[in-house]
Amino acid sequence: MNARNGGLLALAVVVVVGSALIGSRREGARFAGSDGQALEAVAAIQPDYRPWFGAIWQPPPEIASGLFALQAALGAGVLGYYLGYRRGRARRRRDRADAGD
Amino acid sequence: MHIAEGFLPPLHAAAWTAIALPFVAASARRVNRLMREQPQTKLLLAASGAFAFVLSALKLPSVTGSCSHATGTGLGSILFGPSALALLGTIVLAFQALLLAHGGITTLGANVFSMAVVGPWVAYGSLWAARALNAPLAAGVFLAALLGNMATYLTTAGQLALAFPDPVSGLAGSFLKFAGVFAPTQLPLAVVEGLLTVVIVNFLREYSGDELRVLRFAPEILAVEARS
Questions:
Q1: CA distance B179 to chain A (A)
Q2: Fewest Cβ atoms nearer than 10 Å: which of A58, A71, B135, B175?
Q3: Can you give the residue ranges of every domain in chain B?
């Protein structure tokens, strides 16, 4: 399983890096978010639309990047804890089973 | 798929909130019951939520020269059933709407519907269909995550098209325009999400067989083949 998962992870990295390389060759590539581009499309269809409600709190850009990192870190932390816990437990059980033989 | 704050007209915002609400309520009940009846799966549920948390925080570059993010809801959906995901997705989206000004409170209902309702149901249905066609499990899981991701973004395109039909080409023209913004950018990211979801499922089958077996929704399809 480890070799297969390693291969899948490597493939995922290749897809991300390949996408970035192909994308950066596009003219005017700025890697803007597609959510933002959708808003530009709204403006193109209905130029007079004005959002009727604004964000309650808008973090300054530097803080926002930190909060995004925090979100990723929280998720990765919990996920990593689970995977490590499970792997360690399986190994302990295997060792115990071996010792019992 | 985060429609920005205030970018759906009030009527649309209210309607999507009303549509999403029962799904979230049912999801809360389902998660509650799960915790009570199968407390041993608590950690796995947290890990599934964490997977969505990470993936929806990472903006990845795409072939179109723009960037977007995966949703990560396919994994939890195939493990716990699609209805468990509405609550997890709402937590993720509320976090981003309140702290990151990403998405919004007025558009939360619409965003929950696309990411935490449609995506998970499409993922679950895709796995079910792939298994009915005797596709290998890994292929089914890959497709489930990929199609759930794409469905989420196409739903967003549909929601925007309903709110902003093109004056010339109408609803369909507007949908194609929004889908054209999202879909090409999203495709490589959906592939990445599919691959990562297969990685996690492989791991679970190797090390978490006992949890998979008690999950009513992690279809016997996972448990039957799981090595303990």
A1: 9
A2: A58
A3: 10-225
d(CA A47, CA A64): 28
Q: Do A34 and B46 touch (CB under 8 A)?
A: no
Residues of A within 8 A of B181 (CB-CB) are 34, 37-38, 41
Listed residue (B114, B90, B77, B74) closest to B28, CA to CA: B90
Q: How far is A1 from chain B (nearest CA, A)?
A: 7
Length of chain B in terms of residues written:
228
In sequence order, the β-bridge partners of residue B61 are: B67
- Sorted by sequence, the CB contacts under 8 Å of residue B50 that are 6+ apart come out as A74, A75, A76, A77, A78, A79, A82
ipTM > 0.95 (yes/no):
no
Closest chain A CA to residue B186: A34
Distance from CA of B160 to the nearest CA of A (A): 8
Cα Rg, chain A, nearest whole Å = 23
Which runs of consecutive H residues, i.e. helices, occur in A1-101?
2-25, 34-45, 61-100
Predicted pLDDT of residue B218: 62
Residues of B within 8 A of A22 (CB-CB) are 63
For the segment(s) B10-225, the CATH number from 1.10.1760.20, 1.10.10.10, 1.10.3720.10, 2.60.40.60 is: 1.10.1760.20
Contact A68 B100 (CB under 8 A): yes
By CA distance, what is B176's nearest residue in A?
A41
Q: Which residue ranges of chain B lie beneath pLDDT 70?
A: 216-228
Nearest by CB to residue A32, choosing from B66, B102, B205, is B66
How far away is chain A from the Cα of B62, in angstroms, using its nearest Cα? Answer: 5
Residue type for position B56: S
Q: How far is CA B217 from CA A31, A39, A73, B33, B187, in A?
A: 38, 38, 28, 13, 27
Instruction: Report how far residue A7's alpha carbon sits from residue A24's, in angstroms, rounded to the nearest whole number.
Output: 26
**CA dist., res. B49 & res. B94, Å (int):** 13
Task: For chain B, report the end-to-end CA distance as a whole number of angstroms.
Answer: 38
